[in-house]
Amino acid sequence: MDTSLPTRTLGRDGPVVGALGLGCMGMSEFYGPADEAGSIATIHRAIERGCTLLDTADIYGHGDNEVLVGRAIAGRRDRVVLASKFGILRRRDDPSYRGMSGRPDYVREACDASLARLGVDTIDLYHIHRVDGVTPIEDTIGAMADLVRAGKVRWLGLSEVGPNTVRRAHAVHPIAAVQTEYSPWSRDVEPLLPLLRELGIGFVPYSPLGRGFLAGAATDPSTLAADDFRRTQPRFAPDNAARNRMLLAAFTAIAREKGRTPAQLALAWVLAQGRDVVPIPGTTKVTRLEENLGAVDVALSARDLARIDALRLHESVAGERYPDMRWTMRESA
Q1: Which runs of E-coded beta strand occur in the chain?
Q2: Active-site positions?
Q3: According to the model, what pLDDT value does residue 327 have?
Q4: pTM of whole model > 0.90?
Q5: What mean pLDDT comes out for the span 252-278?
Q6: Which of 80, 121, 134, 272 has the most CB within a 10 Å radius?
Q7: How many of the other CB atoms lie within 10 Å of CB of 110?
Q8: How many whole angstroms separate alpha carbon 189 and alpha carbon 285?
Q9: 325 contact partners, CB below 8 Å, separation of at least 6
């Protein structure tokens, strides 16, 4: 039996990848204790299944996640489309600190550091994680384009940006993909999608399972590890989580009718939004990976999609998706 995934193309001239990618952030921090051996096994299985888009960033685990991903893809580099990101600044001595930079000198510095941690010569898809609101996007993309010309990067991407920034960036150098949170309960990116299609830019939804809530695996914040960052997220606050569990019940009922899990239904819904959409659900477990990959076999009819839409999860969900929404859909200076 062929267990490989169908493929999709990111951007008009971007990379061909498996229809589902793998977000690697949680393998190093944010979601409780890390399991390096289990995470590497999960990456290996993802590659075997044709889940070729692996997504990391220089701030995940203060760079440790890039090291882990680099170890996992050693000997498998030619089977992977490797994505990383820069632009958010952190400090090991101050876990609460967050800064941003899109300065051209920092672009070059960050890329070289990521290449060293990943142990590769080239990053396939390099995103600016957030625009800093100070550096014109033309300057940042200009520096990123220099990386392409130097052979250090193949394609360029953006993350959590607004439409003006997309147009301005794309005018400097073709953009292959834009990342933003997207799921049945996070749909504020939808007004941007027609512009991405006009320009031939692929879309990479992160947190397509609502940080695990839509999978039914993390609906009670009291069960989360003490250092799980979801404890600080509005939708996981106790009162909001209780309200959101009620919304999830109706969604889960539709999944059960189709003989699928809520996670598979959520991913199938995202996949159904267009062939230029490649979600990157994260997991550290092979069993969850296999469950997620089963979403590509879920056929949603027009009636199914209408029923999910009628739930209006994105309008009824309790809590914003970040404590500070200034981090989302940002426009450049």
Answers
A1: 7-9, 16-18, 22-23, 53-55, 81-86, 88-91, 94-100, 123-128, 153-159, 175-181, 202-206
A2: 60
A3: 84
A4: yes
A5: 97
A6: 80
A7: 25
A8: 29
A9: none
